[in-house]
Specification:
Largest sheet: 6 strands, mixed
Distance between the termini: 79 Å
Helix content: 25-40%
Number of helices: 14
Radius of gyration: 26 Å
Strand content: 15-25%
Oligomer: single chain
């Protein structure tokens, strides 16, 4: 009689190998990203105890030791019981293995950075693992919880490890718990982005070639692979496509977003109003657009220039005025090439000649009053004209509005690809220059409803235009003046 097959231990091992090799290839590509600070990667390293799956050596920070634990079906949840249960052979638990490695690898006041990667999801009823914070760590919330169940659990965990509670927190301060990590998830959410940053092809074929390379390392040589070794492998595999990018990461909306390997990272989440990414709009103190955020962008520009970075991959979570202004800060006239990843494709200035795309205006430029401020609305993915008109009326200003449309109309699919986006950007930039020549406004008030990638490309060529005031869309309740771009 046929029965339901129980997943085998070999199946779990193979699943774990798949995830481990994906993690290792991602780590290898990190060595190619300028200013990421990753020097080498070792797969199944010797003499590091129970955290040998992937070891990442860094230039200035302590090494990172990654262990992969995968279930065949990923339906088994991640719980504190799972972490503290002895292995089937009666050996130490997963947490005991990490504790032992933490003690063995710490020296001279430097603490190893430990990471557990699993394809399991955290059990929503688990009293401990649900305390994980946005940095994948448990220590802070576990230490500060006053819940009786948590107090009892942390006492039990310390007893399990035969350490004090303070020693438990010290371990957990340096241990990250990364869940829901399948091979596919690692490919789609980690390797794709790091491939663009490293100047490597980001398609499925390149991904498979990278995993095959890692498997060869495991079979033939478990030695450290440094930047030159990875560069040689990428060249031999034929997957190098361009010079690498330095990453500028801006976190303005999503506090849970992980942005590793950035040359510069800016974290502005707590400065915005709202409780989660979808409703974070506008600053708690609107003056900070100019007093805090813009100076930080300028400092990022100077920092990356001093390091010799010229190709800048802008990533993170932000709204249109920030995408646009980041493009402005790293535009060609400042000596940079800005880029953004959109839908798995790299949006960057094309290497071939692009002509301006056709656009349609709501009224002629010649109808604008001379030497007076005006509003320019971009109706690409939506039409903001009425919202802009209501906002301007609410401020008491008397600003004429020109809205720029695409001939095909307004929709989320109106921009077909990077080439089209760059052609639209050229047309809008040329329109701003025509406005400057024709009526010479002291300020253009720019309202955008467009793809973020187009905003970056437009910012990258926004020069020889009037001073520009950008605006944050407050979702139907008006706009907030954001960055002022002097010209």
């Amino acid at each position: 009689m046929a029965g339901t097959a129980t997943p085998s231990s070999s199946g779990a091992r193979l699943t774990g190998d798949d995830v481990q090799h994906a993690v290792a290839w991602h780590s290898a590509l990190r060595t190619l990203v300028p200013h990421a600070g990753v020097q080498s990667v070792t797969v199944e390293a010797a003499n590091v105890g129970n955290v040998d799956d992937v070891v990442i050596a860094k230039a200035t920070e302590p090494s990172e030791y990654i262990q992969v634990k995968a279930a065949v079906t990923a339906k088994e949840p991640a719980t504190i019981d799972w972490l503290t249960t002895p292995t089937r052979s009666g050996g130490p638990s997963i947490l005991q293995r990490f504790h032992r490695a933490f003690q063995d690898l710490r020296h001279d006041g430097r603490y190893p950075q430990l990471t557990l990667i699993t394809n399991r999801s955290i059990d929503p009823d688990d009293p401990i693992l649900t305390l994980r914070d946005r940095n994948d760590r448990l220590a802070h919330r576990l230490r500060n919880s006053a819940q009786a169940v948590t107090i009892a659990a942390r006492r039990d965990i310390a007893a399990h490890l035969r350490c004090t509670e303070d020693e438990l927190y010290e371990l957990l301060d340096h241990l990250r718990l990364h869940t829901d990590a399948s091979e596919a998830a690692w490919r789609d959410y980690h390797i794709r982005d790091i491939s663009f940053a490293a100047g490597v092809r980001a398609d499925e074929s390149a991904f498979r070639l990278g995993l095959s390379e890692v498997r060869e390392w495991v079979k033939t040589s478990r030695t450290e692979k440094r930047t030159a070794d990875i560069a040689e492998a990428v060249d031999r595999l034929g997957i190098q496509v361009q010079d690498p990018f330095t990453v500028l990461a801006i976190k303005a909306l999503d506090e849970e977003l992980e942005l590793p390997d950035a040359g510069v990272e800016l974290d502005w989440v707590d400065r915005f109003r709202g409780t989660e990414a979808r409703n974070r709009r506008g600053l708690k103190d609107p003056r900070e657009w100019e007093t805090v955020l813009r100076p930080q962008l300028l400092h990022a520009q100077r920092t990356l220039r001093s390091r010799g970075a010229r190709r800048i991959l802008i990533t993170g979570t932000m709204r249109l005025p920030t995408w646009f202004t980041a493009g402005v800060m790293f535009q060609e006239t400042a000596g940079f090439t800005p880029a953004k990843i959109k839908d798995g494709q790299l949006w960057v200035k094309p290497t071939h000649i692009i002509t301006p795309a056709p656009i349609v205006l709501s009224s002629p430029v010649a109808d604008l009053p001379t030497s007076a401020e005006m509003a320019l609305a971009l109706a690409i993915s939506a039409d903001p004209t009425e919202d802009v008109r209501r906002h301007i009326a609410s401020t008491g200003l008397n600003l004429p509005i020109i809205t720029a449309y695409l001939p095909g109309g307004v929709s989320n699919a109106s921009v077909t690809d990077c080439n089209h986006a760059y052609g639209i950007s050229l047309a809008i930039r040329d329109l701003a220059r025509e406005i400057a020549r024709t009526v010479n406004p002291p300020v253009i008030h720019l309202f955008m409803a467009a793809p973020a990638g187009l905003a970056v490309l437009l910012g990258g060529i926004w020069d020889r235009v009037p001073t520009t005031q950008t605006y944050e869309d407050l979702n139907g309740v008006g706009y907030e003046p954001a960055f002022l771009i002097p010209n």
